[in-house]
Amino acid sequence: MLTRFLLLLPLLLVLAAPLSAQSSVATTTIATMRTVSGFVEVRQKSTQKSVSGRNGRLLGLGDVIKTGTGAKATIVFRDGSRVRLFAETEFTIESGGEQKTKARTFKLGLGLKKGTLHGRLKRQFQQVSIRTPTAVVAVRGTVLLVKQSGELTTVHLTEGKIEVSNAASTVELSPGQWLPEFRRMDDLAEKRAPLPYKLFLRTEQYEVDLFAKKPLRLFLSIELGNPRNRRSLARPGPVLLESNFAGVVLPQRVNLNERGSVRVPFTLKPLPRGAQPFDGLILITAMMDAPGFEDVGAGTLLLKSTPTGKPQRFLIDPRTDAIRPKE
Q1: CB 197 within 8 A of CB 226
Q2: Residue 83 and residue 96 in contact, taking contact as beta carbons nearer than 8 Å
Q3: Which residues in the chain are classed under CATH 2.60.40.10?
Q4: Could you tell me the CA-to-CA distances from 268 to 10, 128, 138, 189, 215 in Å, in that order?
Q5: 291 burial class (0-12, 13-18, 19+ CB within 10 angstroms)?
Q6: For the chain, how far is it from start to end, CA to CA, in angstroms?
Q7: What is the largest CA-CA distance in the chain?
Q8: What is the C-alpha separation between 307 and 311, in angstroms, rounded?
Q9: The predicted structure's pLDDT at residue 7
Q10: How far apart are CA 154 and CA 288, in angstroms?
Q11: What distance lies between CA 18 and its chain's CA centroid?
Q12: Is 48 left (phi over 0), alpha (psi -120 to 50) or beta?
């Protein structure tokens, strides 16, 4: 018996080695690259080599992502949080990992040397910081934009809570506020101001049946306007649409027309037979998908899942996201 075990031992060691290596890779992987367009480069800390950015590329601590002219890429972290990188951006995953707490929480340190990012971070991320050459942005689950251009930093907040610090001061931003083009020694309280514009979303039906027999086809209207008076702004540009529900099929390319608006179809697929009911509201988010729109906040649309039956129409307040039945 002992002889047989000694003969099998080398084979067991050979089989165990790849599994150990795979486990090591899995524990260091913190994000995945998605929706890549144009030239994107990743400088991997683990290998000290540069590789092309592509859909499905695994990212680890210390990796540096650079986007070229006209390029874009989305970084998806393990809890589903997303960071969208625009053209000519240099972004670093400086530190991070899952914390040893009762609830599943994460701690991330991100770096933005230059360029623009739009973040949609889930509330499971209890401790997130984004460092630029000018400031540090402390995030507590939120939708925000950060731009670094030379010595100037711009930060805007659509949802959640953030604290922004430079060498001279610290301020908190509430949803709908921004800090345009500030330097290291600027008084941030004096720079804080209402965000001038945002995207407004609406559709013809706000309550949907996820157990319907057929997919539901709806139309989504998007308009760029002033959040204080709802006046539209004639300003074209690309829009990125995302949802927290996999059954929502959204168009991949959407552009505001010269009037600053667009109406596009989307499809809501029913849940498979035997599936568990969807817990929560279906969220559709729209954000401007290019540099130069730092003064435009993201827009959201909420759909409520209902039992099988006649759908009820709801109205949503785009400023507060409050939903009420339509008379």
Answers
A1: yes
A2: no
A3: 197-318
A4: 54, 33, 35, 44, 6
A5: middle
A6: 81
A7: 85
A8: 9
A9: 44
A10: 15
A11: 34
A12: left
Residue-averaged pLDDT of the chain: 84
Q: Are strands 282-288 and 314-316 parallel, antiparallel or unpaired?
A: unpaired
Residues of the chain with CATH 2.60.120.1440: 31-194
Alpha helices in the chain (DSSP H): 2-28, 188-191
- CA of residue 151 relative to chain centroid, distance: 25
Quickly state the pLDDT bin for 236 (edges 50, 70, 90).
very high
Q: Each residue of 100-128: pLDDT tens digit? A: 555 556 788 999 999 999 999 876 556 78
Q: Please state the CATH superfamily assignment of the domain spanning residues 197-318 in this structure.
A: Immunoglobulins (2.60.40.10)
Phi first, then psi: give them for residue 306, nearest 5 degrees: -125, 160
- For 31-76, write each residue's pLDDT tens digit: 999 999 999 999 999 889 999 999 999 999 999 999 999 999 999 9
Is residue 297 scored above 60 in pLDDT?
yes
31-194 CATH choice from 2.60.40.1640, 2.60.120.1440, 3.40.50.1370, 3.40.50.150 = 2.60.120.1440
Taking residues 151-177, what's their average pLDDT? 95
Cα separation, 200 vs 160, whole angstroms: 18
Residue with tokens 């973040």: 119
When mean pLDDT is compared across 65-79, 146-160, 306-320, the lowest value belongs to 306-320
